[in-house]
Amino acid sequence: MIVLLLVSLTLKILLIIIFWHHRLAHPFEGILQYICNEFLNVHFNKNYVCESCHLAKQHRFPFAQSDHVVKYILELIHIDI
Q1: Number of H helices, E strands in the chain
Q2: How many domains is the chain built from?
């Protein structure tokens, strides 16, 4: 029962962190940690990774795998538009 209570409490804290991360327009870890510690009185979980933030930091998606084999120079060109 104590383990179930701890899991429930941990889940609630994680949901609070996720809620405020989205609500505050995805601030970086330092801002979110400060808010959690100073105003929400919850321990900030550094293991939380926001998928939207991770994708937003990418410059581009990788090219899809291709099995096309060229026979002549410049027959196939990859560009990023």
Answers
A1: 3, 0
A2: 1
Record the pTM: 0.53
- Specify the residue for token string 């510690």: 37
Helix (H) or strand (E) holding 35: helix 29-35
pLDDT for position 77? 80
For residue 78, what are the contacts with CB-CB under 8 A and spacing of at least 6?
63
Q: Within a 10 A sphere around the Cβ of 16, how many other Cβ atoms?
A: 13
Which pLDDT tens digit goes with each residue over 11-51? Answer: 777 777 788 788 888 888 888 788 777 877 777 767 777 88
Per the CB < 8 A criterion, the answer to whether 64 and 49 are in contact is no
Query: Among 53, 67, 2, which residue's Cα sits nearest to residue 24?
Result: 53
